[in-house]
Amino acid sequence: MKINIYIPDKIYCIADKKLIYYRTGIPFSIKNSASLRENDINDFNNCNNFSNISKEINIDIVKRKINEIYKSCIKLFDPIIYYNIFDIKELPHFIIPSCFENVRKITIFISTLGKKVDHYIEKLYSENKTFESFIVDSCASESIESLNRHFDFLLRKNIKFNGTRRFSPGYGNIDVKINKFIVESYFKKTDIKVLDSGQLMPRKSTICLIGWQNNFHKEGFHE
After folding, report:
1. Which candidate among 37, 201, 207, 213 keeps its CA 20 to 30 Å from the CA of 79?
2. 188-222 burial code (b ≥16 CB/10 A, e <16)
3. Residue 55, SS3?
4. Dihedral sign, CA of 190, 196, 201, 207?
């Protein structure tokens, strides 16, 4: 089976900073009341819950630190999307979400940021740079979601029919371990691997499904 490949520009991986801040749990709404020294990052590295960071920390400086870390990790992204469109009769019932009613076709796609960002997170963590590794992990998680939203938009733009919401195994009635079946059955000739737990490797990767209802018409794929 042929696997379609889409290689997007990194710009489509750039996440909304507000979402990154929200994911980190750092309280950016508090007022600045003190300055932050470089070695104060060590305080973050010893903190398990970043929402409990002292209100005496200068939040603007924390924001700048996060922005610096995010800019460095964007350079490590190697975004790629593998995808295919299946007739619903081609797919076993246990991978079809129960919310996909009246669906005739299903697009399955796998998005990934590549291996380098995974290695970078592991490197930071091994160096006890807990704050930096946490921020890179959070940024990369939001970035893969930005990439998914971009490709979701392209699919709906090019496939002129009603689509369901985007769905990923691990939600609803589809167990996350189904990831392994999907990759080994339909995307084996890719660099995506799956642990028995259903965790994709590289870790900053996702599997998404979109169902297409009623008549189905696919135009040429355009950005």
Report:
1. 213
2. eeeebebeeebebebbbbbbbbbbbeeeeeeeeee
3. coil
4. positive
Sign of CA dihedral 13, 19, 23, 29: positive
| CA 197 – CA 182 distance, rounded (Å) | 14
Q: Which amino acid is at 4?
A: N
Domain ranges of the chain: 4-213
Q: What is the pLDDT of residues 36-86, one digit of tens each?
A: 344 444 555 554 445 555 445 567 777 788 889 998 999 999 999 999 999
Measured CA to CA, the distance from residue 40 to residue 94 in angstroms comes to: 50
Question: Any idea which architecture 4-213 has in CATH?
Answer: 3-Layer(aba) Sandwich (3.40)
Token pair 């042929």 in the structure block, residue: 2
pLDDT at 113 over 50: yes
